[in-house]
Amino acid sequence: MFERFTKAARAVVTGAAEHAERDGGATVTPEHLLLALLDREDTRAAAALGRLCPPGRRPSLLAALSDARRRAGLSRADTEALADLGIDVGAIVDRVEETHGAGALSGGRRGSGRRTFSREAKAVLEKSLRVALARKDREIGDEHLLLALTATGGVVAEALADHGVTYAAVDAALAAPAPL
């Protein structure tokens, strides 16, 4: 499938692996894919993100991702469902971090070496192929990766939606003429 990726999409995948390595993560996650998309300039996805979540709003987006990472990747919906059962995720996170240190639930750490893609990140890559095919595009571009991130659910899609970056909004931004 990787041979169908444009140069920009390949750069996102490579950038995601680099983000995972810098974070010390054992796997590449959808969050790493989003961080790599945010690094890009002069691509279709970068233009759409620039319109929908300009640089001034990105610290809020990154804070939302950080908060989700601290909760071991649980979405707000998951946290609320557990609260309905009498489970206080915030209290659990506090106790775990008190015992094991800040960020203890952020994911496994690993030394150097090649990073594998998490099940969720693989789902995003597969969804990007389905999005490209549905749009009758021959190649998978970084815009397809962004659309896939908004459509696969999870904390990244939740954080993006909270910042106005939904599938429909990205689709509209991609269809809009480029600003002069």
UniProtKB/TrEMBL annotation:
The keyword Protease applies. GO terms for molecular function: peptidase activity. Keywords: Hydrolase, Protease, Repeat. Transmembrane segments: none annotated. One of its GO terms (biological process) is proteolysis. Residues 2-180 form the Clp R domain. This is Clp protease N-terminal domain-containing protein.
